[in-house]
């Protein structure tokens, strides 16, 4: 059966309010999508289906304090802590980093792709990973790449909403989100993980700091092996040493060297639509980019492309668009200032 026929069945059973057949048709569409390599679409449907079933079980009239009422309240609270649920099409081809880092990440992926082999011999599965390094060096992108490589749903957590000034609230909030996330076959992404370092300030209660760290340690220890925690921080030194040791893999994503500057430029221009107006300026540009992040380099290049396009006159439109390298150098110099 084709995808369009599945969609027609879903529409039909939905309009007829035939719940059983609707769920059956949805599950068939999910299986069909997996078989036809539309994995991201299948994961999104599965997530929608789970959320709908969960909400359905807690709708209707409910006595205050009943299980249904409590479930509804928990859903509202947890949704405040989730920035988004997403799937990713990114792969290792999108990531610019050293070969050693790619090798480590590939081993991490292989552990989950072949998790049954490790479990057969009662070996632990690495499922807690920390990306650290300067801003703009690919920590978030690396998380998206792992989500894409593993075809897993990624839940992006809003740590800013979880961290509370109220005594004991931060630990409770963390427990709630981990409890819910553990029911999904997913990646939990904790960006700006150092925001938990707020409780380590000297102005904060030392006991509260200890409670939060102990809570995270316990949550990490009891995390199901097929679930993955990815944390990212610009300030690894702010994270408790005991907590750092709980990460199975710590990856330092640094500022790019000349080789990786060339690679990010080539990847950005991989479609072959644009060319440089003066290729002799390229070596000067690469040297000028040293000390800048991947994000800043790519942003300055895209800005240069846009401004170069906007300066094209009517009689130049038929020619291949050229990138104004002099303009790009000036933008890089502004970033370095």
TrEMBL record:
Q: Which residues form the AAA+ ATPase domain?
A: 125-257
Give GO MF terms, alphabetically: ATP binding; ATP hydrolysis activity
Entries under Pfam families matching the protein = AAA (PF00004)
Q: SUPFAM superfamilies of this UniProt entry?
A: P-loop containing nucleoside triphosphate hydrolases
Q: Which organism is it from?
A: Labilibaculum euxinus
Q: Which domain of life does this protein belong to? A: Bacteria
For this entry, the protein name equals: AAA family ATPase
């Amino acid at each position: 059966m084709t995808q369009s026929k599945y969609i027609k069945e879903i529409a039909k059973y939905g309009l007829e309010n035939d719940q059983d057949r609707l769920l059956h048709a949805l599950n068939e569409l999910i299986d069909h999508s997996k078989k036809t390599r539309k994995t991201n679409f299948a994961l999104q449907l599965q997530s929608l289906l789970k959320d709908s079933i969960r909400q359905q079980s807690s709708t209707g009239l409910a006595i205050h304090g009943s299980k249904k009422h409590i479930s509804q309240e928990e859903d509202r609270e947890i949704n405040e802590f989730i920035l988004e649920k997403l799937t990713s099409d990114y792969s290792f081809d999108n990531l610019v980093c050293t070969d050693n880092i790619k090798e480590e990440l590939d081993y991490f992926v292989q552990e989950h792709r072949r998790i049954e082999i490790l479990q057969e011999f009662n070996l632990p599965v690495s499922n807690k990973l920390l990306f650290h390094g300067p801003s703009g060096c690919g920590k978030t992108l690396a998380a998206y790449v792992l989500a894409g490589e593993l075809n897993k749903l990624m839940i992006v957590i809003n740590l800013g909403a979880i961290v509370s000034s109220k005594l004991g609230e931060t630990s409770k909030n963390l427990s709630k989100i981990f409890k819910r996330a553990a029911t999904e076959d997913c990646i939990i992404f904790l960006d700006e993980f150092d925001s938990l370092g707020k409780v380590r300030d000297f102005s904060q209660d030392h006991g509260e700091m200890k409670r939060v760290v102990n809570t995270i340690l316990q949550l990490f220890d009891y995390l199901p092996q097929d679930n993955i925690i990815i944390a990212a921080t610009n300030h690894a030194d702010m994270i408790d040493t005991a907590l750092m040791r709980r990460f199975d893999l710590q990856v330092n994503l640094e500022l790019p060297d000349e080789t990786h500057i060339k690679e990010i430029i080539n990847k950005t221009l991989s479609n072959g639509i644009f060319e440089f107006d003066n290729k002799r300026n390229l070596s000067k540009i690469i040297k000028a980019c040293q000390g800048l992040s991947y994000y800043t380099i790519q942003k300055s290049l895209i800005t240069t492309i846009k401004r170069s396009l906007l300066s094209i006159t009517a009689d130049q439109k038929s020619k291949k668009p050229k990138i104004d390298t002099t303009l790009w150098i000036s933008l890089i110099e502004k970033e370095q200032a």
